[in-house]
User: What shape does this take?
Amino acid sequence: MRIDPQVSIGANAKLGPNVYLESGAHIGQGAVIWDSVILSNASVADDALIHDQIVGRRLRISEEVGDDARTLPSGGPDWQGRLDARRKDDPKA
Assistant: This one.
């Protein structure tokens, strides 16, 4: 595990193994992260479950994306509407 300076980690967050948190990353309360990289200035939501992923400020790269509602990007105000529309078109989304 590697944690750069200026990383904030919320209460009851669980990290590791194989976690790298770059400078300026914010980890929400109760988040669980393993086998992942959280890039500079990225935010992980409270109670998020992150595994085998690269999380950036406005992106999330993974083989299989889990519950989108638990890891919210720092997108614009219409992000939730676009996600809901995508789910209607593709039930797997």
